[in-house]
Automatic annotation (TrEMBL):
Enzyme kind, highest EC tier: hydrolase
GO BP field: carbohydrate metabolic process
UniProt lineage: Bacteria, Bacillati, Bacillota, Bacilli, Bacillales
InterPro entries in the record: B-gal_1-like (IPR026283), BetaGal1-like_ABD1 (IPR048912), BetaGal_gal-bd (IPR048913), Galactose-bd-like_sf (IPR008979), GH (IPR017853), Gly_Hdrlase_35_cat (IPR031330), Glyco_hydro_35_CS (IPR019801), Glycoside_Hdrlase_35 (IPR001944)
Domain Beta-galactosidase 1-like first all-beta positions: 370-481
EC number: 3.2.1.23
Protein name in the entry: beta-galactosidase
Pfam families per the UniProt record, alphabetical: BetaGal_ABD_1, BetaGal_gal-bd, Glyco_hydro_35
């Protein structure tokens, strides 16, 4: 495979001047059965390269337990890109942001004694090196110097937006350099001078990330790096959504205008995202702007060149037309669109309450004070804290001090209210009238922060629970990662509003196709299809449907389980189009 180098004006593939026309697609956001379809479509858009982050947390979910199969099979993804004729840019982190849970870091890093992330900290670097040993063992045969399709590798990720530890950046450069020898290494940073300057490393190519104002961004980059070609490593031609916002879109005309500005200056480009995909399971990230915690929705559609379900967009065709002005492209041969089906309504005939299901879902743990989810060895999902209050105290102010992220509170089995991080509400008035009162708090981890100064984001109850000023002790805790819901004991019992229940029904089909489950009549929760966690839904939107890829389904009967926290419905509908706003 060609080797990528550069002179002061252009990238060179085996010595020939080349524009890098790349698109981002994350293997961990698309089911493996669809990798080839999506990659072929990106090639038919006129791209010659695909870029992917590498998510540490899916490859090492627990320390020392490495996963490189299924949706985590990065080797297969890169080989598939090579098969369809695309070069590959890899961004291995260890931090990736990506609106992905904890910026790609595995949750267990937070439990390592004396660790400090993204700096020259020995405990942190030891964990990174152990991970890189496993990762690069798999990437090495795929490097261009070994005949593979990988032409460039990123060092860290937008470090100038976080810190200024040059010793750390140099260590990361040297750590990757010794593993890949003479492959092209680069960094990428936002367009502000402080970001570019803070993220640059000696002897490493710097690229810049932006969505508009090409001239300003490229001029700033050229000022700091005069003897290298221009590249926008993240062209933000769309955007992601937080819960409670409108769905973000950007017109094709606006995108093409900025793209033309880049190409006229001989600038290479990587579309972020070309194909966004889905934050399946509990892997969505969150932002924190110093005032409010903002979790990201399940869909990572991003208003990309391809939709979440892999369909081409108007933007796709306009981008290809623009490329045709600058490079020779073969006749377009798009794959057939993946079929979509409207399966209609499914009755949910069985239910079981969460608070009656601890035996099937959890192993209880004891602690004097309520600890964080991480301290109980749990990464994702929900957690229930339970204690007995002894004494009929009467009217009290119950405070859950620093809940991360959303807690439903029950006194003697009755719902008394919500405490949550988004609204900032941490206290409720309760009436303690019995000699013994059972207090239960169901806390949802809604995604760890993936960007900015508040990256270390412990989940659960992070400080304590008190009545007035008296802290409560002696807790029984039920971790609920919900990574296996097959042991639940369903029945036809009635449900109760504001009490979380699992609801089960059967979708029977003759033909397997992509579909979307319409959650617009439900309130908040999670959906499982044949054991696959599709992700979260929430009535506040903008997302109203969840994408169900055909490989999650089978001919005949399919088990549908909805874990609803508040308002319970009797049926759910499968439709053939998404509703994102």
């Amino acid at each position: 495979m060609p080797k990528l180098t550069h002179n002061e004006k252009s990238f060179l593939l085996d010595g020939k001047e080349t524009l890098i026309l790349s698109g981002a697609m994350h293997y961990f956001r698309t089911v493996p059965e669809y990798w080839e379809d999506r990659l072929l479509k990106l090639k038919e858009c006129g791209l010659n390269t695909v870029e992917t982050y590498v998510a540490w947390n899916i490859h090492e979910p627990e320390e020392g337990q490495f996963v490189f199969e299924g949706i985590a099979d990065i080797e297969r993804f890169i080989k598939t890109a090579e098969k369809v004729g695309l070069h590959v840019i890899v961004r291995p982190g260890p931090y990736i942001c990506a609106e992905w849970e904890f910026g790609g870091f595995p949750y267990w890093l937070m439990t390592v004694p004396n660790i400090k992330l993204r700096c020259f900290n020995k405990p942190y670097l030891e964990k990174v090196d152990a991970y890189f040993d496993e990762l690069f063992k798999r990437l090495n045969p795929l490097l261009s110097s070994n005949g593979g399709p990988i032409i460039a590798i990123q060092i860290e990720n937008e470090y100038g937006s976080f810190g200024n530890d040059q010793k750390y950046l140099q260590h990361m450069r040297d750590s990757i350099q010794k593993r890949v020898r003479d492959e092209l290494l680069f960094t990428s940073d936002g367009p502000l001078p402080s970001m570019l300057h803070g993220g640059m490393i000696e002897n490493v190519l710097e690229t810049v990330n932006f969505g508009s104002r090409t001239e300003e961004a490229f001029d700033e980059l050229k000022k700091l790096q005069p003897n290298a070609p221009l590249m926008c490593m993240e062209f933000w031609h769309g955007w992601f959504d937080h819960w409670g916002e409108e769905h973000h879109t950007r017109s094709a005309d606006s995108v093409v205008e900025t793209l033309e500005d880049m190409l006229k200056r001989n600038g290479s480009v990587n579309f972020y995202m070309a194909h966004g995909g889905t934050n399946f399971g509990f892997y969505n990230g969150a932002n924190h702007n110093e005032e409010i915690y903002q979790p990201t929705v399940t869909s990572y559609d991003y208003d990309g060149l391809l939709t979440e379900s892999g369909d081409v967009t108007d933007k796709f065709f306009e981008v290809r037309k623009t490329f045709e002005k600058y490079v020779d492209l073969p006749e377009r041969k798009l794959p057939v669109p993946t079929p979509k089906k409207q399966y209609g309504e499914v009755q949910l005939t069985e239910s079981v309450a969460l608070l009656d299901s601890f035996e099937q879902l959890s192993t209880p743990q004891k602690s004097e004070a309520p600890l964080t989810m991480e301290e109980y060895g749990q990464g994702y999902g929900f957690i229930v804290y339970e204690t007995i209050i002894k004494g009929a105290y009467g009217k009290q102010r119950l405070t859950v001090q620093d809940v991360h992220d959303r807690g439903q509170v029950y006194v003697n089995g009755e719902y008394v209210g919500l405490v949550d991080r988004i609204s900032g509400k941490s206290s409720l008035d309760v009436d303690i009238t019995e000699d013994e009162t059972k207090l239960q708090i169901i806390v949802e981890n809604m995604g760890r922060i993936n960007y900015g100064p508040f990256l270390v984001d412990f989940k659960g109850i992070t400080e304590g629970v008190r009545l007035n000023n008296q802290f409560l002790f002696d807790w029984t805790v039920y971790p609920l990662p919900l990574n296996d819901v097959s042991q639940l004991s369903f029945s036809n019992a009635e449900t109760k509003e504001n009490h979380p229940h699992f609801h089960r029904g059967t979708l029977t089909i003759d033909e397997v196709a992509d579909t979307f489950i319409d959650m617009s009549k439900w309130t908040k929760g999670v959906v499982f299809v044949n054991g696959h966690n599709l992700g979260r839904y929430w009535e506040i939107g903008p997302q109203q449907t969840l994408y169900v890829p055909a490989p999650f389904l089978q001919k005949g009967d399919n088990e549908i389980i909805i874990f609803e926290l508040h308002k319970h419905e009797q049926a759910v509908c499968f439709v053939d189009k998404p509703v994102l706003g």
